Amino acid sequence: MASLQFCSECNNLLYPKADPHRRIMVFACRICQYEEASESKCVYRNDLLTVTKEQVGVTTDLGSDPTLAHSNVECPRCGNEDAVLFQDQSKRKETRMILFFVCSKCNHSFTDPTVQSDTRENEEG
C-alpha cells in the first residue's frame, strides 16, 4: 500500500522520482537534496472495483418525485406498472449503463429485468 513519505532533513513531502543512473525509483525532497530509495514500486493505487458496487441509492419519497422519469415496468413485488427510473451513478471504468427502478406504489427498488435476459442471450450466441 502506497503511503506518504516525509523528508528526515526538513520534514517536507517526498515525491517519487526515477534515478536513471541507478535505474531505481527514489523518493526525493523538492526543498533540500535528500533522497531515499523506494522499498516499493507502487506509487499510487486507485482500485475502484472494490470501492463502488452496483447498488441502488434510494431515498425516501423517490417514487413521488415529479422530476424523475416514469416507466411502465412491472414491479416484481406488487405488480404495479408505474415506476420511477434513474441511472446508476457509480463512476467505474468498465461500467455499463444500469437502470434502477423504484415502484411508485410500494417503493420497492429493482434493476431493469430486460438487461439481465439480454446479457444471457449475448453470452449464448
Automatic annotation (TrEMBL):
Transmembrane segment boundaries: none
CDD domains, A to Z: Zn-ribbon_RPB9
TFIIS-type domain ranges (all copies): 71-111
InterPro entries: DNA-dir_RNA_pol-M_15_CS, Rpa12/Rpb9/Rpc10/TFS, Zn_ribbon_RPB9, Zn_ribbon_RPB9_C, Znf_TFIIS
Pfam families listed in its UniProt record: Zn_ribbon_RPB9, Zn_ribbon_TFIIS
Main location: nucleus
Keywords, ordered alphabetically: DNA-directed RNA polymerase, Metal-binding, Nucleus, Transcription, Zinc, Zinc-finger
UniProt subcellular location: Nucleus, Nucleolus
Keyword Zinc-finger: yes
Subunit relationships: Component of the RNA polymerase II (Pol II) complex consisting of 12 subunits.
Family named by the database record: Belongs to the archaeal rpoM/eukaryotic RPA12/RPB9/RPC11 RNA polymerase family.
Described function: DNA-dependent RNA polymerase catalyzes the transcription of DNA into RNA using the four ribonucleoside triphosphates as substrates.
PANTHER family assigned: DNA-DIRECTED RNA POLYMERASE (PTHR11239), DNA-DIRECTED RNA POLYMERASE II SUBUNIT RPB9 (PTHR11239:SF1)
Name of the protein described by the UniProt record: DNA-directed RNA polymerase subunit
Organism expressing this protein natively: Lentinula boryana
